Amino acid sequence: MRLLHLKLTNFRLFQSVDLDLNADGLIGIRGLNGAGKSSLLAAIEWAMYGQRRGAGSLPARRSGATAGERCQVELEFSFDGHHYEVMRNEKKAHLKIDGDIVAQTLTETTKEVVAQLGVTRDSFTSTFYARQREIEALKPQTDEDKRRRQLEDLLGLTRLREACKLARQEAREQQLVVRTLESEAIDQEQAKRLLAELEEHVKQHTPAVEAKRAEKEEAATRKETAWKALSGARERAEQAFTAESAAAIAEAEAKQAAERAEKTAAALQLARDAGAELEKLGPAVSRAAELRARDGELEAHRQTDERATKLRERKHAAEKRGATLADQLAAVAPAGETPAALSLQITEAEEAREYTTARLLELATELPAATARARAARAHANAVSEIEQLAPAVRELAELRKEQTRLVSDLVACDVEEREARRVLKEEETHREEIERDGEAARCLRCRRPYGADFQKIILEYDASMTALRTRIASLTSRAATARARQQVLSLRIVELAEAEARKSALEAQVASEPAENADALERQSELLAEQQTRLRVEHDQQEEHLKELRRRRDDIAASAQQRQQVEQALREAVAEAELFAHELAELSANGYDAEAHAALRKELATALAAEERARSLCPRAEELPLLERRFAEEQEDAQAKEQLAQGAREAAASRAPDRDALTTAQAAFESADRALAEAADQLKAVEEQALRDSAEVRAARESLEQARKQGIRLHKERLELRYRSAAADVLKDYNAEAQRRAFPTVARETSELLAALTRGRYTEAKLDETGALELYDDGAFHPLRRFSGGEQDLANLCLRIALSRSVSRQRGTEAGFIILDEVFGSQDLERREQLIEQLKELRNDFRQVLVVSHFDDVVEECDLQIDVLRNGGISTALPHKP
To answer: Which residues lie below 8 Å from residue 141, measured CB to CB, with a gap of 6+?
Structure first.
């Protein structure tokens, strides 16, 4: 494992940290006490395994972070040739391997990290991560077995111990399987004899079946022959249809080509006609400009003359309209009622109608509510009544369920007792056969002494015991059958009553959630409100009609006054218009306009303009003449070629016509053969069904024999499996013992080598006792670690931790990658620290990265990558640099 990148957000003392850890060798982390050095390493553990539980665990979230800010750690590392990315915050986490997400929750991420690395949190902190003041890989437990199990777990021996335990358990389970199969096995010889007798009986009825089967096969042969003929006819018919389709397509293409040629010929003729017509229109087109100018002059004279005529007509119309309006004004009479009196009556009528409308709106709300309450009260009363009716069924259901529970218990007891009786009966039958076979030499199952002359008496005792067991088994079988029959009856009745119970529960819930009210009183109240609503609606309609009448009278008076005003205004406007038209007419002078000459000119101009417009439309068509001549020649050639192809296709289709007609004959022959086969199959089925009914016992006997064979094969396999499992359990037991004998010395030897190098030969040998406690060799003997100074104990424990890290990595087939040492130099003097640093540098073959946390400058300055942790105002930062 190799650390690549670490990013923190609001973790412990750090608000935001982004560290590039992709470096080999020693990585030193330096800072004052309390600055947060250990928090950087704790973030690695938190990202991989999550929050620690129990006393002493520190919260991950920075104390000054607000509720909306996330506490998050992102870690990147490489392992076994793959790139890993772990992200974890307080609510979610994920793990990516080579860019693919393999886990997306907090729990799944932790489990997947353990599965990928093969290292649990405890193994990680006991080997690769030496936390502050926890240099010891193995805690000095008072329970020696617990310390030994811890060491076995680190060395990978736990799984072997569990494998031994599992192998023994599987052997015991396999032995139970063999015994069960032996008690349930069927006698194969007896099953064979019964099958042979039944098969001989069925064989006598076989000839009729064979005859019908031969008839069916002959009919099938005829059908197959007809099918082959039909297939050939279909193939030839398809070819005929294909030829007809090709002929139709060729004819359609030839027709389309001829039509295109005809259209092009028509367009060509139109282009030629357009050219000839353009030559004829030339003189008329040349005079169009002159006629257009003369028409403009005459048009101006015409407009002046026309305006004078219109003014005289308008003046006469205005004078006539003035006389008519004077007559209308005299005919308009003044109004009798005043608009003010009618407005007062209208206001009073509107107030009365608004009061009626408001009451109707109130009733529109009150009436549905009253009706709903009445319905709810009536439903409540009906529910109470139905609950009382369902109560007996619910009581019966409770009694039936109790009886069903007793029946289930009785069935289980009968089944257990019957199995045990059958097992004992099988054992006694087997032993009786052995006694009868061996005679006086037969031995007692308990004391293993021969029966001697008493063996006949023992046989009689076994016969009596087996008879009693068979009687007991028959009694238990009958008792169980009776119980099952009663249980079926109870199950059907319970299903029926359960519906009543569910209905009663639903009604009780409904009754409990609604208050009880007087349904009759509420219904009467609802009826009174409905009557009041009907009366008010009639009154409202009458008020509306009265109000409409008042408004109509008011509108008539207003319309009469308005009409008088309009007539007076129109009369004044008519007099003013007559005077205006007279003045304008006096200002116009005569211009001698000749309408007939103008009409003759316009006719001549229209002819010239029509000729000009026609020439304009004919020009594009005349210009297409060369193109249309070339296209017409090409399309004529294409039409002739496609007509030749169509003629060939028609001839080919005509030659295939008989094949199409032959398909109907072949289809009829096949259908006849198919009906014959169906009739033969029905007859064969009837005979076979009769034979099957006769051979039902044969099938049952054959299935019994097959079951006996399968039981024999399985029993042989299970006995063989029992021998294999027993042998595997013995081998694993021996291998476990040998692995334990080898594991402890290997760790002790590597610990000794490291300790000798760091102490310059002062301590050259270390060992682990039977409980896993570390001992050092000094003054000609091994001594417990507590005999030595604190610095020597820390040094020995550090060497043991490094040796364990190597062992854990080897047993997983990967390199150790890195190790974290948090303040492990505190008890060492300057010389010992220098030796330890040099030794750690020598461990690069095993640990490409060694993370060292220390407040000693002489330690951090020897590191290849140095990280300074600074704290300012309660927030820490981490600054990496290389020396």
So the answer is: 147, 150
